[in-house]
Amino acid sequence: MHVRVPKSFQHKTNSISTTSYTLITFLPGRLAKEMTKTFNLFFVILCCIVMIPNLTFFSKSSYILCISFYICTSILKTGINEIKKYRLDRKINKREVDVIRHENLAKIWREDINVGERVIIKKGEIIPVNTLVLGAYTEKGRGSGGCVPQIHIETSAIDGESALKLRSPLTALGSTGALEPHEMAVLETIKVEYDPETQSGELAIEVQDPQMNAPVLQSVQIPITKKNVIPMGASIYTDATTIVLSLGGEQKKAKPSRIKGSIFINMISNISIYTMIAYLILLLISVVSACWFMVRSEWLLGSVAISITSDSMRTLVSNVLIFSSLIPLSLFVTLDGLRISYSIFIQSDTTMQLNETPTKCNTHGVLEDIGLISHVLSDKTGTLTLNQMTLKGFHLPGSSSLAIRDPKNLQALYQSMNVISILTVLLCHSVCMVNGEYIGTSQEEVCSLQYFRDNQIVLLSNQDGRVTIDIEGNILTAHVLGVLPFSPAIARMSVIVLVEKKVFILTKGSDETVPNMCTLQVGRRVSNTYYGRH
């Protein structure tokens, strides 16, 4: 796809809608939907039969009232859900966002974001469209140490993953802590060739040639990778102002989620199928028997003119009403009334409130299944748990604690087996530091760093390949030269670091992989590595 900054802007190009009906199509659409249900169609047919004069002793008004109540209740519940969806969609579409239009800052609705729009995102804000990261800056500016070469995003609303992910800006913006006029002018020249399937492409931008005295612009081509793309629905975690380029939303009308049917109702439906079969067989036998009786019987007052067709239809209709008690309409009316009552009961339960947030019952179709629950199964992924781990101990060769001998002697520290093992844990990981917090996909790595921090061994910073560590008051600086990330195929992770003009290769992995690497023979020399376990 080809993306460039639009010259004119259109309205409602990024609106979302999760409703299934409009104000005009709701009533006819729901009536047609209700008539596709077997039970509703059956009861409507019975309602038409009851309307025939002098055919049955059933009360016409009460029967019509019951079927109307059942169908109207279903339509009303759907209507309430549609109103809730509409209000939520409107709240999302009418959210204000900051954008750059014609080299000026402006505020627009979320639904009016065009493809190629430059959107300004603050910390904690949700990305309204698929975007490219153009730049990020803090109030300090780049000259005061406020440069943000990487930003962290959270995608828990998309894939449920709470671990932060790194994204890299394509350009350097906000050198003074705010967007300058010449930077806004540069953003007007953006042209992007992007492939959504591979999430790759090229960004073309015109910048001023620093070697020329006159303001001569030159075109710069910047490659785009997955590290420069933020999906719609993610949120910015880094405390910075981020400038992104809109690539458009994935779909304009989101499909409503399908709610699984009630187990209790499914059981009733299965039983009703067999009941219907028995009902039809009994109905057929009764009609045939009645017709045979009328034809073969001798009447007291002589022969009687009998119409097989009309009498059969009359007998059929009468027996339909008589045998309809096998599938009572009152059962479904009672179930709907109980669902509504149970929903009100749940919402009025004060013991289920959390931080003054009342309980809301958003569905009425599976309430009766709560009584069927006997076991609740959960895993350790954090769906029903806190997804946290705490390290209770750390075993090092020849020692049972984190005590380090002679901490003031840095040279002794570098040659210590224990410190090498500790450096492996402190340097060989995929944990990010965001606002002083350890954030990572591996809970083992996060809790290990937290355990060291509680024992006066603190990872202070990890940015641009420069790692700063505080070991009991002594500052140690390491430069990461290379990283071999963890892979299930090799079951280990390795880093190459430079510490005090010495290069170390630090590796950690599974118990089956690392011990086999502890003794390596190179020619006639044997290199012993340090091996620690936790």
TrEMBL record:
The chain crosses the membrane at residues 39-56, 273-295, 315-335. Residues 8-64 form the P-type ATPase N-terminal domain. Keywords: Membrane, Transmembrane, Transmembrane helix. It comes from the Eukaryota. It is found in: Membrane. GO terms for biological process: phospholipid translocation. Pfam families: PhoLip_ATPase_N. One of its GO terms (molecular function) is ATPase-coupled intramembrane lipid transporter activity. GO terms for cellular component: plasma membrane. This is P-type ATPase N-terminal domain-containing protein. The lineage of its organism: Eukaryota, Fungi, Fungi incertae sedis, Microsporidia, Nematocida.
